[in-house]
Amino acid sequence: METVTHVVARDDFHLELEFSTGEARIFDVRPYLDKGMFNRLRDIKLFKQAHVAFDTVCWPGDLDIAPETLYDKSIPVMKAA
């Protein structure tokens, strides 16, 4: 299973992710902002506190998204050479 090794939370509610496979991918969080506890992430200050813990992306307040979801629903990006 792929795990998250690095995350950058962008101002447009996308996550720049790096996985244990070395892949760089972009995950769009916007579809989740209307779902349950994830609506708290509409607060950009909270969203920008994304960090890697337990092999996935987490936020304060026990918010996280499973690494397999992040991988399966993200799009690959090319790393700058």
Can you tell me the CATH architecture? 2-Layer Sandwich
How many domains, as an integer? 1
The averaged pLDDT comes out at: 95
CATH superfamily: NE0471-like N-terminal domain
Radius of gyration: 12 Å
Report the portion of residues in β strands: 35-45%
Low-confidence stretches: none
End-to-end C-alpha gap:
26 Å
CATH class value: Alpha Beta
CATH topology name: NE0471 N-terminal domain-like
SS content category: mainly beta
Order of helices and strands: EEEHEEEHE
> How do the strands of the widest beta sheet line up side by side?
1-2-3-7
Number of helices: 2
Number of strands: 7
User: What characterizes the major β-sheet?
Assistant: 4 strands, antiparallel
The shape, in one word, is globular
Helical percent range?
Answer: 10-25%
Write up what this structure looks like.
The strands form 2 sheets. The chain has a 4-stranded antiparallel sheet with strand order 1-2-3-7. Strands 4-5-6 form a 3-stranded antiparallel sheet. It has a single domain (4-77), classed as NE0471-like N-terminal domain (NE0471 N-terminal domain-like, 2-Layer Sandwich). It is globular. It has 2 helices and 7 strands; from the N terminus they run βββαβββαβ. The chain starts with a strand and ends with a strand. The chain has 81 residues and is mainly beta. 12% of the residues lie in helices and 37% in strands.
Task: List the keywords.
NE0471 N-terminal domain-like; mainly beta; three-stranded antiparallel beta sheet
Question: Nutshell version of this structure?
Answer:
By secondary structure, this protein is mostly beta strands. The protein has 2 helices and 7 strands, in the order E-E-E-H-E-E-E-H-E. It is globular and about 30 Å long.
